[in-house]
Amino acid sequence: MTDMRNGSGRNPRIVGHVTLADRRAFLLGSAALGAAAAVGLGTRRVRAQERAEISFASAAFFGSETFGDLAKAYNEAQDRVKVTYINLPPPSSSTEVYQGLVQQLARRTGTPDVFSQDVIWIAGFAAAGWALPLDEYFPADKRGDYFPGTIAACTYGGKLTALPWFLDTGMLYYRKDLVDKHGGKAPTTWDELTEMASAAQKAKEVEFGYVWQGKQAEVLICDAVEVIGSNKGAILSPDGKSCTINSPEGVAAIQFLHDTINKTKISPKDVLSWDEEPSRQPFTAGQSMFMRNWSYAYPISQDAKVSQIAGKVGVAPLPAFAGGKSSACLGGYQLGVNANSKKREAAIDFLTWLSSAETQRRIAINFGLGPTRPALYKDQKIASENPFMAGLEPVFSGATPRPVTPDYAKVTLALQSGLSKALLSGEVKKELDAVADRVNTIVGG
Fold first, then answer.
1. Strand, helix or coil at 213?
2. What is the extent of the structural domain holding 223?
3. 252 and 195 in one domain?
4. Average per-residue pLDDT for the chain
5. Which of the chain's termini has less CB crowding within 10 Å, N or C?
6. What confidence score (pLDDT) does residue 49 get?
7. Which residues contact 67 (CB under 8 A, 6 or more apart)?
8. What is the mean pLDDT of residues 45-73?
9. In a domain, 87, yes or no
10. Crossing angle of helices 344-355/20-39, nearest 10°?
């Protein structure tokens, strides 16, 4: 397990109820045991009352095991900390997950000690004082083990307030047979995608050239983050205090999405009412050459029982505008420590184990969730057991967070409304100017 703890020894000072020297002794003593948990080694028997007891709350993700199994493996492999797992609803019920965490954290009782959180909640939890800053435990020189985009998403107010765990991003799905015919390789620019899609439509090989998600919902923000980012633009300024969606780069990017429907006609008007599944269905039915979607769509597209294009699907980073680079909206859940935890050192040890290379490998194989450590995409065991996941490093390297602000819940609703109006009306500059004003009132007020 990569040791990310700050082991530099100086004069001890008090942190909570223990000194830094005590903390280092605790962490170093449990690090080997945590590593043993990751590889499934045995444990020593101790009395339960000698162990620090903490709790871990997370949305329920499923695979060949559960997150409860992860907590059990950690408990069985060491004798200093005992974790109780609190099972929250699945991420498809994200509102309920969010509300459950808010209710617990707002009580400031210290429960749960460790929690997982959607990337869009990180700034809000940090601003409320519910998330423990992690800089002293995970110094800057160790953060290079993670994708830069995930570190950026885990940082608020210049402080690391979450630790990367697993991720997902938007990606470009394409018909390999049609790409071979009309270009030979996946497009790297939006102009190339448009040209290839139009050619396949003209040849009547597909009904649609490119399907994406334009529904007035959170996924529309994800699509906008990607296309604007690929044009060297952004929705908010770096300090999060002003809206820049109406910059020339932002206007040109959203104009491109509008034009896919109304000018180049590579996308159907129906995309404005589609989220993930309605856009996935025509693609796997063989009706579209290209699709923007998340990683979940890959196993479906390769299942001959439900997909008419099984064996013909490729995945690549999303295209960019000339002079820009691929941008993929960051999704996934990251880890936090309750600022009011009464067992802070035990929480940090479990957090470190959860984010370790060994545990992320286990999650990639058993849950199909993308590691936040680039090195794992070259891992032989992952490549053998989940070759699709092993090939996603170029896609995840372009991971871009959604607007980082504690007011995200208000900002996203304003953006969804403004973007929908722009795409429907075609008055892109006018509507983006209007939504920028509304967002400025939220983040600047």
1. coil
2. 169-328+407-444
3. yes
4. 89
5. C
6. 55
7. 56, 58, 60, 61, 85, 87
8. 86
9. yes
10. 40
